[in-house]
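Teaching assistant here, posting this on the class forum so everyone can see the example we discussed in section. The complex has two components, and the goal was to see what a joint structure prediction looks like when all of them are supplied at once.
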Amino acid sequence: MGEFIICSGKTAEHAFFHETLAVHLYTIEELCYYMETNLYLLDRDWIGEPLFQWMKTELGLEELGNRLQALYAQTKDVYACVECIFRDSGYYSEGELEELSAVLASMRGKTPMECRKMRGDRLLAAGKYRQAAYTYLELLQSSYAARMTEELQGNILHNLGVIYARQFLFEEAADCFAFAWKKRKSEKTREAYLYALNFVSDNYPMREDEMGLKFSVMRDAMNHFTEISDDPGHYIERREASEAAEAFDWQSRQTGLLRKWREEYQKVTL
Amino acid sequence: MSQKKKLYIGIDLGYERAMVSLFHAGMVEPETISTVSGEEKYQIPTAIFAGRKGSIYYGDEAVKREESSDGEYFDGLYAQALAEKEGFLYHDYLVQYIRRLIRLKERYDLKGMEVRLAIAVPEITPDSIEVMEYVRGQLGFSTEQFLVMDYGESFFAHTYHQDRSIWMHDTMLFDFSKDRIELYTLHCEGHTGIQNVTAQKKEWAVSLPAAKDLQIRDEYFSNIIREAMQKKIVSGVYFIGDGFDGGWLKESLRVLGPNKRVFLGKNLYTRGACYAAYRKNHPEGWKFFYDCDYKLQGEISMKIRKNGEPVYVKLVEEGRNWFAPVDSFHVICRGDPVLELLVRQKRSRNAKTVTFPLEDLPDRPAKTIRLKVMIRPRSGQQVSVLLTDDGFGELFASSKKSWEFSLTFGK
């Protein structure tokens, strides 16, 4: 069951705007939501004196604003200030605050690029594939890629491949896994590539040499796939479909199932 | 910062005439403004004459020009504004009229005082509230500076600012205007703490013979007194209205009996309005509460999470006028919330929990559904809680969806 959280602070008459954000923020809740969903954007460019002053004058959060000003003057720690805002906002439950604290702690000392990668990973884990894909594609642009290790580039390409595969775009997925393999030789990536090949068209190039597809590799992969297929947890949809087909009201069950899958698919592509 | 001295203006706004009184901290009691100096001529017809050349006359000056072809004559401004379904012609003339009534204060040396206005009307109805809200807006008064009440409440405010001997038992007011006699009986409950005062209202139509013949009228009214006084201990009686003019109260006074303070006058409602305005600003030490059907008959609280803790936020306060403005606030939805309200009936110690599930919430990421919570009392008994999707700033536009839940006290 859900609940209602009371909004604290006023609605600003004059919004907070910074070119980094490209959005106008009017309440502490909007600020929190924006910071939470764009943790990689947290930097001294916009978290500092003007933001704290705005919170005091526009949101009427005088005491919090003063505390942030003192904390920032003492530590210059953007993440500490953000955590303080999260805590005082009343927008989060204790559990959510702990999670956010852990994320912020893991971001300390990371470059903006690494933070951005973390954002992509969080979006992927949350099933927000489109947003995750945008984040990864942005990171793969040459201006960023030039500053990345091959390992990091490989990881990003692998994750991008996963996103494509989950959206049934298996040729694009296979391409990504192949590029990822080039960057760093991970068995996981090669297996993912082989799995994606199950669903590509006949004229799709196999890249046997490029991917080092020897007999032993194929055998190991096959064994792994068999293990996976033995786990019923991976075949929920298949079970649901078979149950629907055997049901007395099979037509309506199948229609309902299709509708559910369509809705789920639409959700993950958002 | 120095606070401005307050001037309390009380207006008795009847359907056909009005009266104005003034009161401030330096006065012993409100003073009713007479339209003719040196005389007790308080009544001002609710009429306006709009001359063709732009000049505006009001009150008696307007009535004098009723037949004139030099402009347009409008009377019964308040009654007409109540009946006005389209446009705001009478609403606007009423605003002008009340503005002129307020300007009567200029006859006194009261410059620099902040005006607090109270208007007593015969009856509180949704229409009268609509008209009064229009007047308030046009005159530029804040809700703090403006007060509306019915004659019953004005009678209450007047009575309980008088000597205790008048209200130590029930107090009665007979209002005889035109062909009707109205009776308000104030009854006080409780002797310690806040004392609850109620007004019972009764009406009689005056028969044609009684209207024409003063002796029959006296006899008829003495019977009304007998009926009204049955099983009641009364310590004070007021006779107001033009109907009592003519010195015919003979048998009636005999029937009324001894041991009562009796008053005859016309300006009680306007003086009562002044007292009520004063009390709104100075509630300290005032131990009387007026209870009537336009006072909210219970209280409602809403379960909300505040700083991580579940709390009940009061939405509706017992005893407030249902038409008084209520603050709105915003909440954020987490998950699929159920609106949980705690409803307590007046004078009851127990509250009951009422829940309303919120269905068909907009499809947005978690914690980005911000709802505006508004309270819409419909009467003293019935209150609606309205939740509207207010969007989430520039990040998510409002879906324009809203949910309304209605509650009735005692049900």
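For the discussion questions: Chain A touches chain B through 24 residues (CB under 8 Å). DSSP finds 14 helices and one strand in chain A. Think about how each of these relates to the inputs above.
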